[in-house]
């Protein structure tokens, strides 16, 4: 519990201490008038404390973010609505909205008195250069008495999330070609829309379009018959994100990891536009079991916006989870750091003969040199084990901090044959 002394401002503490000194002095020298002045000085901060509200006012806080999801560097507007839901009139407060520093400066404003049911609105702008899930709130209320003797801080605990999606790049109009087992969408497999039968003609059902009526069959059967519209099975793709904190060089927000997240997000949008069923394999999706299920593009982008580096992440664990997918002929696209030969060798082994696997191979040395600045002439350069994936039939492209994602994608998808490495 907050002590009354901590609620006093410097002025209030001076009044209290000076009042006690004056009271004691008046008693010692025998001047009642001096003692009365001291009592007044003491009484002022005491009365201010007694009449100060100690609890947060009953104010409902609702926020609306427009747009709901932001892109990096996109400006968003937050509207905050304050409604007094208590039966008494609120006091005047100095208010401050707590937001992440990456969204901009914290808004500060005066929250005026509000009667029961009265509403006040506030608008402010947010913008972030980096992806992530950011919290808005709580709102801190500060109040001073008219004499400036006390200072109280209260919190309105309402919180709202602002989601900034990863930076997405257009990867061009080229389609991803499949090969053999990895291209089940290009095989002549047919799946009935209604799932009840495999025939091409069926009875008319309410809601069927008349243009689908098959007139010869209708005349033969004596009832309306319609064409059963079939469609080819959709191709599947598995997107794998390397989130090992030990593999990505640097600390804090690491450029290599942000490059990898942006790459996976861009590829996800590109593949969904091509009709792929997408699975997202990260440490988080492996824990919650969502990696086994198809993920919609919006959900994938939201998951990637929240993706974080993990200290206990292991690439071999992700490789083991990806193996059942590759056994069924799924296109695999990974963003992986070339930091561990054994881990890369394990990942390379999941590719099945005849299937297609591609990887953005992030060179940790190039990202580390970019973070430190210009490379010294005598600095030894460690060869990154990037060829391991290419040797196992993966189509790879080695990337650094200056590599543009569309160019890397074009180089990787242009590789023909089984395996290949581009730099």
Your description of this structure?
This protein has 423 residues and is an alpha/beta fold. It has four domains: 4-50; 59-164, Immunoglobulin-like (Sandwich), CATH 2.60.40; 192-231, no CATH class; 236-422, Rossmann fold. It is 30% helix and 25% strand. It is built from eleven helices and 19 strands. The strands form five sheets. Strands 2, 4, 5, 7, 8 and 9 form a six-stranded mixed sheet that branches. α7 packs parallel to α8 (341-348). The protein is elongated and about 115 Å long. 32% of the residues are buried.
Strand content: 25-35%
**Assembly of the depicted chains:** single chain
Q: Give the count of helical stretches.
A: 11
CATH architecture of the largest domain: 3-Layer(aba) Sandwich
**Structure summary, number of beta strands:** 19
Q: Strand-and-helix sequence, N→C? A: HHEEEEEEEEEEEHEEEHEHHHEHEHHEHE
**Within the CATH hierarchy, at the fold level, what is the topology of the largest domain?**
Rossmann fold
Report on the biggest sheet.
6 strands, mixed
Rg calc: 33 Å
Q: Stretches where pLDDT falls below 50 for ≥5 residues? A: 179-199, 374-380
